[in-house]
Amino acid sequence: MRVGSAFxxxxxxxxxxxxxxxxxxxxxxxxxxxxxxxxxxxxxxxRDNGAPELVRGWPLGRNVYEVIPPDLQxxxxxxxxxxxxxxxxWSHSYECST
Length: 98
Description:
The chain has 98 residues and is of the alpha+beta class. It is built from 4 helices and 3 strands.
């Protein structure tokens, strides 16, 4: 699991080994959208879909809003703001037709 040093103290209640072993992509962001951690599933998804260069192109600290279409940003901002305010994880299932 790649975890930024400033984000690591915020993950004390989480089982990092379990998150890293999760088959799907798991990531954490700061409230401003900067990527703060990713699990092995994040990298595996890119590799399995023929785009391993995406992992190198998405280092910790890059802003995830760069790739979210403007009309979807309110949906994600609301979900992530709820998670930040409540202290609970937020998840959203989606179909990726790759």
